[in-house]
Amino acid sequence: MEQRRSSDRNKADDPIVEKVIKIDRINKVVKGGKRLAFRAFVIAGDQNGSVGLGLGKSKEVPAAIRKGVEKARKHLVAINIVNGTLPHEVIGQFGAARVILKPARPGTGVIAGGSVRILLESLGLKNVVAKALASRNPINCARAALQGLQQCKNVEQESIVRGKPLPVFLGSR
Fold first, then answer.
1. Strand 110-111, strand 128-134: pairing
2. Are 46 and 95 in a shared domain?
3. Do 84 and 61 share a structural domain?
4. The last residue of a domain, from among 77, 93, 112
5. Residue 63 per-residue DSSP state
6. What is the pTM of this model?
7. What are phi and psi for residue 85, nearest 5 degrees?
8. How far apart are CA 73 and CA 17, in angstroms?
9. Same domain? 61 vs 112
10. In what order do the strands lie in the sheet with 110-111?
11. Which helix (H) or strand (E) holds 19?
12. How far is CA 51 from its chain centroid?
């Protein structure tokens, strides 16, 4: 009778989706020549409001991917989602990259490009529009989008913090 380890069972029924975004070759120039290594950028999300980014480096590609996945799973961040979209418009910034994220009407889908699209789908957003401005670097765009998503506020929590009720307009746009 074969026994399975608990880590094997957790991977089988684990809802977290992992996607490799970019694999880069890194050259380090040393006295004897060049040392070759690899860098893997990974996005992991549970498609239910949590997402994480990971950057792994190693001498072999599979080891770099594994390290990136571990970092992404370790740094999962919960994001406020309202009815499959964002509660309000936000602008995220990281380095030279700027990303505008806007809520969209039901049926719109995820309108974004590159790593920002994968990040939003891994997060579980169904209707959102995003635009990357300035830099198109996939790592910086994903980090800018995540930084913007972390700015999304909850109406109930914000009214408690401010100490007064907030007007919410849910009319047609």
1. parallel
2. no
3. no
4. 77
5. H
6. 0.85
7. -140, -175
8. 10
9. no
10. 90-94, 97-103, 128-134, 110-111
11. strand 17-30
12. 5
Domain boundary among 77, 104, 128: 77
- Which tens digits make up the pLDDT trace of 124-161? 999 999 999 999 999 999 999 999 999 988 878 878 88
DSSP string, 108-150: --EE--HHHHHHHHHHT-SSEEEEEEE---HHHHHHHHHHHHT
Q: How far apart are the first and last CA of the chain?
A: 61
Q: Are 63 and 55 in contact (CB under 8 A)?
A: no
Show the domain range for 149. Answer: 79-162
Which residue blocks in the chain are alpha helix, DSSP H? 6-12, 61-74, 114-123, 138-149, 155-162
Residue 170 inside a domain? The answer is no
Is the same domain home to 101 and 69?
Answer: no
